[in-house]
Specification:
Structural class: mainly alpha
Helix content: over 70%
Order of helices and strands: HHHHHEEH
Number of domains: 1
């Protein structure tokens, strides 16, 4: 449920970002008919940032607990696999199948959180790109300045963190997997 909620919220924010990028692409034609359209874009951008910050506040601690738990479970499952492979049982394949399903479930759960953070971060960069690619040379000087502020504000990417310790990204996912593998090898060496 928690993974579905975070994915839904991130997809909603990214949909709002897509709407803003489309409005930035057509800014020169809308500014001639409606001079306050650049100000409405700034308000939309502020709402997107605010919604992203609210998602970050809600999911930051939850994501930290989730990653600590997932790391412990991955290490435990890996250690049990190492122990079961060292025993002289004939049904090693049956033991491996028992451990693969929970391992995949925990790994996919960690991946979903990291993918949501990476997707939000990537989408937030597209605002600055769309503002830069807009036909800003057809706008008035004051509207160009407003557009410049949108570009400057979009330089700070939107992220979801795990307890303000690490960004949820695919890089963070690989570091979690590397840490889990190294813990498994240490436990195996000690056993």
């Amino acid at each position: 449920m928690l993974n579905a909620l975070i994915l839904t919220l991130v997809l909603h924010v990214s949909g709002q970002i897509d709407i803003m990028c489309e409005e930035l692409k057509t800014i020169s034609s809308t500014c001639k008919s409606n001079p306050s359209s650049t100000k409405s874009l700034v308000k939309l951008h502020q709402k997107i940032i605010s919604l992203s910050n609210n998602i970050e506040k809600f999911f930051s601690f939850v994501a930290l607990l989730q990653f600590i738990w997932n790391t412990l479970v991955i290490c435990s499952i890996g250690f049990m696999v190492v122990i079961s492979l060292d025993t002289n049982t004939e049904s090693k394949s049956g033991v491996m199948i028992q451990f693969i399903i929970p391992y995949l479930a925990v790994t996919i759960e960690a991946f979903v959180f990291c993918f949501a953070g990476e997707y939000l971060s990537t989408k937030s960069r597209s605002i600055g790109d769309a503002a830069y690619e807009a036909v800003w040379y057809d706008l008035s000087i004051s509207e160009c300045r407003i557009l410049l502020f949108v570009i400057l504000r979009s330089q700070k990417r939107l992220t979801i963190t795990a307890g303000n310790v690490m960004d949820l990204s695919l890089e963070g996912f690989t570091s979690i997997m590397k840490a889990s593998a190294s813990y498994i090898s240490v436990l195996h060496a000690m056993y």
